[in-house]
């Protein structure tokens, strides 16, 4: 997960996208239904980078088989501090095929939902352009 973490910390979204499997499933902390596919996941991650301020990973945990990872982070959305975790699974090719995000506290999740909601049209257009 070093490559993913370094790409996110460098805000290198092309490198982040290159690490996503075509069939990646992204589970948002603020939307009930998961998103399927590389294009929509990449567009969501681009929006998250625009929305999060003062983002940093604080620690990393890895499963014994090297395919499951948890990256604990802190960030800010407006005046709300957020703590969260990216739960990532990589496939046999080393690409991310499952990406689930959890955040706390509730007020931070609500601020994130509002900020991401404001990005929705742009997310949809970016995902459509990538799929074309």
Notes on the structure:
This protein has 132 residues and is of the alpha+beta class. 41% of the residues lie in helices and 38% in strands. The protein contains 4 helices and 6 strands; from the N terminus they run ααββαββββα. It has helices at residues 2-9, 13-18, 38-51, 106-131, and strands at residues 20-27, 35-36, 53-62, 68-77, 80-90, 96-104. A 6-stranded mixed beta sheet has the order 2-1-6-5-4-3. Helix 3 packs across helix 4 (106-131). The model has no long low-confidence stretch (mean pLDDT 94).
Rg, alpha carbons: 14 Å
Taking the sheet with the most strands, its summary is:
6 strands, mixed
Tally of separate helices:
4
The secondary-structure class comes to alpha+beta
Give the N-terminus to C-terminus distance in angstroms. 29 Å
Task: Determine the fraction of residues in helical runs and give it as a percent range.
Answer: 40-55%
Shape: globular
Q: In which order are the strands of the major sheet placed?
A: 2-1-6-5-4-3
């Amino acid at each position: 997960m070093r490559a993913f973490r370094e790409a996110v910390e460098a805000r290198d979204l092309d490198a982040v996208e290159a690490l996503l499997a075509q069939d990646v499933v992204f589970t948002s902390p603020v939307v009930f239904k998961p998103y399927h596919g590389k294009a929509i996941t990449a567009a969501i991650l681009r929006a998250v980078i625009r929305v999060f301020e003062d983002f940093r990973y604080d620690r990393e945990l890895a499963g014994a088989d090297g395919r499951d990872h948890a990256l604990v982070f802190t960030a800010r959305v407006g005046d709300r501090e957020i703590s969260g975790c990216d739960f990532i699974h990589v496939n046999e090719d080393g690409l991310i095929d499952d990406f689930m995000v959890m955040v706390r506290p509730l007020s931070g999740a609500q601020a994130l939902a509002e900020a991401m909601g404001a990005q929705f049209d742009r997310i949809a257009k970016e995902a459509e352009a990538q799929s074309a």
